[in-house]
Design goal:
CATH class of the largest domain: Alpha Beta
Largest sheet: 7 strands, parallel
CATH superfamily of the largest domain: NAD(P)-binding Rossmann-like Domain
Number of helices: 8
Structural class: alpha/beta
Helix content: 40-55%
Order of helices and strands: EHEHEHEHEHEHHHE
Shape: globular
Radius of gyration: 18 Å
Amino acid sequence: MDLGIKGKRALVLASSRGLGLGIAVALAREGANVLLCGRSGEQLEANCKAINAEGKGRADWIWADLGDERFVEMVTTAVKERFGGLDILVNNTGGPTPGTTEDMTGEKLESYFLSMVARVITLTNALLPGMKAQGWGRILTVASSGVIEPIANLALSNTLRPALAGWSKTLASEVAGFGVTTNLLLPGSILTARLDDLDGAAAKRTGKSLEEIRTDKEARIPVGRYGRVEEFAATAAFLCSQPASYITGSLIRCDGGAARSV
């Protein structure tokens, strides 16, 4: 299928590794020009070299930290200077530290709210006028399956990610008439360094081995295994595509059927 995004300009947050990098690669392979963003300049540069070596969509990068109060200004300036505008925005952030509700201090809540919620919203608001003016745009926000089924020992994530669901749904109805779609994509257990960290924390907390943790988790996934980054990224690329123009205000799972809610 031709996704119709050749030459489109895309910004992917937190794309030095993991899901963000996977999405950037998938978009570039469809011919989109991609601006990678993250905190590891060396890794971002290497990622861009690898993408550009494929000879399809072009990639560039910017160092920017979601925790920095200058984040929105830095990123919007880079978008204007490198691309002159934007067609596709992929909002992706790192996840908070594991822990229970009793571990949620006011300081942690405020810090992670800024980097996981507030900066995502303010950046989107800054880039939206251009999308509305051109009559085409895609806003995809990566959250967590904890939005629909809270995950044990991830109290901060379970608290903050649902805020993005309410925001994305509200935004969808406000911008649909301008040719802009906005959707939320929920990963389940996808093989990334973040998942390694979470499984390691679970092993430490329960006294089980890492292998036992993974075997137990995979047994609860109907597909019977963890997902691959490429599978998740393909879903993201489709939601950013021209054929997906009638999908907006939606919450899409990519979890192998793990979530038990309807």
